[in-house]
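Hi R.,

As promised on Friday, here is the backbone we talked about, encoded as structure tokens. Could you run it through your design pipeline when you get a chance and send me back a sequence?
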């Protein structure tokens, strides 16, 4: 049936539902939000366009609709404010997430959770703890958006279609994220080989690009108050990979079980996604400096996870 229930109909949730509709992903989409009037309005608005995209059921949902859903996508939570880091959000959003998850699980949900609420890595770990689900069925959006931002930035800088730029950002979806330049390539050329063939560019250009990507959310929030289109498109891509059983490789928040010499932490890493959720985690052999950045990112998230679990006890 490809049934999706979206919990949270704010900027991110409504943009995600629109992206699903525009891309023809999922044929049954329920929307849950405290603001029932906005949900009703969005459902009518979206339904008006069905003649151009094909049949789809879009409706205001209740938690009882979660019982037979294939995918629950949680976008609810307090918005990130200007000059506020994603990790500053953790305690207040953890309370919101706990209430949502308890309501979902009360209806015997057995599908896959996809988390977009920030800080996404910490809250993905929290949802896994709350549900007791196996690691493959609790996924965070992770560094999917960050990686897309970097690919777009590199493509613009080098005048290359970003779809032909293969560079990933790993680690926290936040301030300790890092690009894996050691395994990046453009059209089959390693990044270092590309720079050798294009002397008008240098490594400092790459550093500048990655710093701009890391700070992109803060810049967008400064301009318009929130970020939602980019993450909505990223979520739709993850959803498509899962529901269409693609076995696609995407950088998402996964629960480490020994990868990168760590465990019991959720963090952005490449993974193969299909109908079962995470088929496998791809552990990239990182360069020494990249591995150190991964260690810092893991420790940052573990510290924050402990804060959430301690406040919850």
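Update: got your reply. Pasting your designed sequence below so it's all in one thread:
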């Amino acid at each position: 049936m490809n049934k999706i229930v979206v919990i949270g109909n704010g900027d991110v949730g409504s943009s995600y539902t629109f992206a699903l509709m525009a891309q023809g992903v999922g044929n049954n989409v329920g929307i849950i939000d405290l603001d029932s009037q906005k949900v009703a309005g969005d459902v009518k608005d979206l339904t008006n366009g069905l003649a151009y995209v094909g049949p789809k059921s879009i409706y205001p949902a209740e938690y009882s609709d979660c019982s037979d859903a294939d995918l629950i996508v949680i976008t609810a939570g307090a918005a990130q404010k200007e000059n506020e880091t994603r990790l500053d959000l953790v305690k207040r959003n953890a309370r919101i997430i706990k209430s949502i998850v308890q309501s979902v699980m009360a209806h015997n949900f057995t599908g896959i959770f996809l988390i977009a609420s920030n800080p996404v890595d910490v809250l993905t770990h929290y949802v896994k703890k709350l549900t007791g689900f196996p690691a493959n069925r609790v996924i965070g959006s992770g560094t999917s958006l960050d990686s897309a931002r970097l690919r777009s930035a590199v493509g613009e800088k080098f005048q290359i279609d970003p779809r032909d730029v293969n560079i990933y950002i790993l680690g926290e979806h936040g301030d300790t994220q890092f690009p894996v330049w050691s395994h990046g390539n453009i059209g089959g050329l390693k990044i270092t080989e590309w720079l050798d063939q294009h002397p008008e560019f240098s490594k400092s250009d790459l550093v500048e690009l990655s710093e701009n990507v890391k700070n992109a959310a803060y810049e967008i929030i400064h301009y318009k108050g929130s970020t939602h289109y980019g993450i909505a498109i990223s979520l739709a891509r993850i959803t498509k990979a899962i529901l269409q059983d693609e076995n696609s490789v995407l950088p998402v928040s996964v629960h480490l079980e020994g990868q990168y010499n760590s465990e019991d932490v959720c963090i952005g890493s490449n993974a193969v996604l299909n109908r079962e959720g995470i088929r496998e985690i791809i552990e990239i052999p990182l360069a020494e400096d990249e591995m150190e950045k991964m260690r810092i990112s893991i420790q940052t998230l573990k510290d924050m996870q402990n804060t959430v679990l301690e406040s919850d006890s």
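One thing I noticed while checking it: The chain has two domains: 3-140, 144-312.

Thanks again,
M.
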